C-alpha cells in the first residue's frame, strides 16, 4: 500500500484501523507509510514540527453554542483529526480540540488544488490548524468552511480502532495520553477533578480563612500516620530518608508557631498494596485549626465533600455505581464501640480487661489474638465486621487510644480518643481529631509505638522527639483533619477505581 493508494481510497491510512483489528505487520506498514509522508513533507519544506504557534481564536464548544452570532464569521481553530471523509472535490474532517469536536469542510477550489492534494495525505491523529468561516451544512451540522489548512504536528502512531476506542483498562492507564484522545468522558473526569480541588481550596480559604502552606516531602521520620513508608537515600548527606506518609506533624509545628489555620493539599506516599481504592502515591488534604476541636473539623468535612459535589454536579446528591448518597449535612454519627455492638453483637461496656477482650478475639478468629489489647480488639472487630455496613455518609467516633497515637483522650472514657473517621460507600474518606497537645502523654504514646516498630510492626508510628519538643513549647487546643481527596473525587465522578481519577497511576512494569 502506497501513498497514492491511500489518497485515491479517499481516507488516510488510519481509517483502515476502523474496520477491525490490524495485525502487527499491517501496523508496522502503516507506520512506515506515515514516516514516508513526513519525509516527503520535509523535503517540500513543510516540516510540521517547526510550527511554533497557531492563534486559536475559537473552540468547538464556543462555535456550537454561539452559532447564531458567529454564523458567517471568520475563525481560527486547531485540533486533532479524528475522522476523514473524502467526497471528490470536497472533504470533511472531524477535529477534536480541548472543548469538544467540530467538523471541517474543505473544498479543492477553496484552498487551492495543490494544498488540497497535500491535505488528502493527512492521517487520523494529525494535528491541524484551520482558518475559515462558520456555517451550517445542509444536514444541520455546525462546521467551519476551510480557507486555509496547516499541518501543525504529524502523528506517526496509529490511534486505536475508532469504533471500539481504547478499552483495555491497563493500556488506558499506561497510555493516558491516548485514553484522553479516544475517550472524551475521561477528559471530562479530569476536568471535574480540577474543579473539585479548586472548590476545596476556595472553601477553605474564602469561607473558613485557612492559609495554604508547603511542608517537606522528603523526611527523616515518616510520621503523622500508621503506615509503611518508602525509603530513599540522600547521597550528599549519606543518610536514608523517607517519603512522607502524612504532613500532620509539620502542620502542627506551624500551629505551634502561631499559624492558627493552615492546610496543605499534596501527594502522600505509602508503601503498601494497590487495589481499586489504593494507589501508593495519592492526593490528600490536611488542615489544623487552632482553638478548634473535633466537632469543628467534622463540620468542615461535611462542607468540603458536599460543596465539592454541588460544584461539579449541581447537587449534593451523588450516584456511585448505581447507589445514591445524599451528602447534605449533617451526617449520621456512631461510635466505634456501638458499631461493634450493633453488627458484631459484642458489648465492650461489659468487657474491661485485655484478657476478656482476647477471649472475644479468639472466638472471632482474629490473628495474633493472644497479643491484642482491648482497644485493638475493638478496632479489628470493627474493621472486619462493621465497615461493610457503613454506606453513609456517616462519622465513626470514639477510636481506642491504641490506634490513635496523635488524638486527645476522651475525658468521658480515657481508653478512647476524640477522633472520627468519615465513611461513604463503606470507604473511609476523612480522618480527624481533637489533637493531642499533652507532650508527656504524646511521648509516652510514641514510646509505645516505637516498641511496636522495633518488634516488627512496620506501620507503627516512630518516635519524633522534635515534635514532642514542639508540644512542650505549646500547641493550643486544635482540631485536625485529613481528607482522602482521591477517594472523594472517585465517588463524585462515579469512577469505578481510584486509577480512573489519577492521570498516571502506579503500574507494574511491562515484562518483555
The CATH homologous superfamily of the largest domain is called: Bira Bifunctional Protein, Domain 2
Compute the CA-based radius of gyration: 29 Å
Main sheet summary:
8 strands, mixed
Count up the domains: 2
Q: Give the DSSP E fraction (strand runs of 2 or more residues).
A: 15-25%
Question: What's the number of helices?
Answer: 16
Unreliable stretches (pLDDT < 50, length at least 5) are 1-19
Write down how many β-strands occur, each being a DSSP E stretch of 2 or more residues: 20
Could you explain how this protein is built, in words?
With 512 residues, the chain is α+β, with helices and mostly antiparallel strands. It folds into two domains: 3-165, Nucleic acid-binding proteins (OB fold (Dihydrolipoamide Acetyltransferase, E2P)); 184-331 and 392-501, BirA Bifunctional Protein, domain 2. It has helices at 3-9, 24-43, 60-65, 67-70, 113-119, 169-174, 176-182, 184-207, 248-256, 294-313, 336-343, 354-363, 374-385, 439-454, 465-474, 485-492, and strands at residues 74-86, 90-97, 100-107, 127-136, 142-153, 211-212, 218-219, 231-234, 239-243, 261-269, 281-290, 317-320, 323-326, 332-335, 394-397, 409-410, 413-417, 419-424, 427-434, 478-484. The strands form five sheets. Strands 6-10-11-20-19-18-15-14 form an eight-stranded mixed β-sheet, with helices on both faces. A hairpin with a 2-residue loop joins strand 18 (419-424) and strand 19. The protein is elongated, with a radius of gyration of 29 Å. The two termini are 31 Å apart. The model is unreliable at 1-19 (pLDDT under 50).
Amino acid at each position: 500500500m502506497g501513498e497514492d493508494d491511500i489518497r485515491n481510497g479517499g481516507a488516510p491510512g488510519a481509517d483502515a484501523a476502523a474496520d477491525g483489528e490490524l495485525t502487527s505487520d499491517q501496523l508496522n506498514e502503516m507506520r512506515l507509510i506515515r514516516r514516508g509522508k513526513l519525509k516527503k513533507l520535509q523535503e517540500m519544506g513543510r516540516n510540521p514540527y517547526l510550527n511554533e504557534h497557531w492563534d486559536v481564536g475559537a473552540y468547538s464548544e464556543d462555535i456550537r453554542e454561539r452559532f447564531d452570532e458567529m454564523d458567517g464569521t471568520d475563525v481560527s481553530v486547531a485540533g486533532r483529526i479524528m475522522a476523514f471523509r473524502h467526497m471528490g472535490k470536497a472533504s470533511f474532517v472531524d477535529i477534536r480540540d480541548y472543548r469538544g469536536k467540530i467538523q471541517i469542510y474543505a473544498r479543492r477550489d477553496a484552498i487551492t488544488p495543490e494544498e488540497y492534494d497535500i491535505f488528502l495525505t493527512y492521517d487520523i491523529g494529525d494535528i491541524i490548524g484551520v482558518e475559515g468561516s462558520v456555517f451550517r451544512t445542509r444536514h444541520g451540522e455546525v462546521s467551519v468552511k476551510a480557507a486555509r489548512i496547516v499541518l501543525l504536528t504529524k502523528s506517526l502512531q496509529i490511534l486505536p480502532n475508532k469504533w471500539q476506542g481504547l478499552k483495555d483498562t491497563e493500556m488506558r492507564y499506561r497510555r493516558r495520553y491516548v485514553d484522553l484522545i479516544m475517550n472524551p468522558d475521561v477528559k471530562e473526569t479530569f476536568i471535574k477533578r480540577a474543579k473539585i480541588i479548586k472548590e476545596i481550596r476556595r472553601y477553605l480559604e474564602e469561607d473558613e480563612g485557612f492559609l495554604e502552606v508547603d511542608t517537606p516531602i522528603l523526611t527523616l521520620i515518616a510520621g503523622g500516620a500508621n503506615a509503611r513508608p518508602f525509603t530513599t537515600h540522600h547521597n550528599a548527606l549519606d543518610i536514608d530518608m523517607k517519603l512522607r506518609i502524612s504532613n500532620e506533624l509539620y502542620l502542627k509545628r506551624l500551629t505551634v508557631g502561631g499559624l492558627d489555620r493552615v492546610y496543605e493539599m499534596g501527594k502522600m506516599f505509602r508503601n503498601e498494596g494497590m487495589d481499586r481504592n489504593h494507589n501508593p502515591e495519592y492526593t490528600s488534604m490536611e488542615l489544623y485549626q487552632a482553638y478548634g476541636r473535633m466537632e469543628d473539623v467534622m463540620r468542615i468535612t461535611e462542607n468540603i465533600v458536599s460543596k465539592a459535589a454541588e460544584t461539579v454536579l449541581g447537587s449534593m446528591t451523588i450516584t456511585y455505581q448505581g447507589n445514591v448518597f445524599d451528602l447534605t449535612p449533617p451526617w449520621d454519627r456512631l461510635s466505634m464501640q456501638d458499631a461493634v455492638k450493633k453488627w458484631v453483637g459484642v458489648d465492650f461496656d461489659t468487657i474491661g480487661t485485655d484478657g476478656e477482650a482476647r477471649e472475644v478475639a479468639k472466638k472471632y478468629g482474629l490473628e495474633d489474638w493472644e497479643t491484642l489489647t482491648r482497644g485493638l480488639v475493638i478496632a479489628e472487630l470493627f474493621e472486619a465486621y462493621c465497615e461493610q455496613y457503613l454506606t453513609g455518609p456517616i462519622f465513626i467516633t470514639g477510636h481506642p487510644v491504641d490506634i490513635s497515637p496523635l488524638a486527645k483522650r476522651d475525658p468521658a472514657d480515657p481508653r478512647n480518643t476524640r477522633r472520627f473517621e468519615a465513611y461513604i460507600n463503606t470507604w473511609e474518606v476523612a480522618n480527624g481529631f481533637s489533637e493531642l497537645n499533652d507532650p508527656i502523654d504524646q511521648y509516652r504514646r510514641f514510646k509505645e509505638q516505637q516498641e511496636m516498630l522495633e518488634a516488627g510492626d512496620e506501620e507503627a508510628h516512630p518516635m519524633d522527639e522534635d515534635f514532642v519538643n514542639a508540644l512542650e513549647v505549646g500547641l493550643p487546643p486544635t482540631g485536625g483533619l485529613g481528607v482522602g481527596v482521591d477517594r472523594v473525587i472517585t465517588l463524585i465522578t462515579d469512577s469505578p477505581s481510584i486509577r480512573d481519577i489519577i492521570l498516571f497511576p502506579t503500574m507494574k512494569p511491562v515484562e518483555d
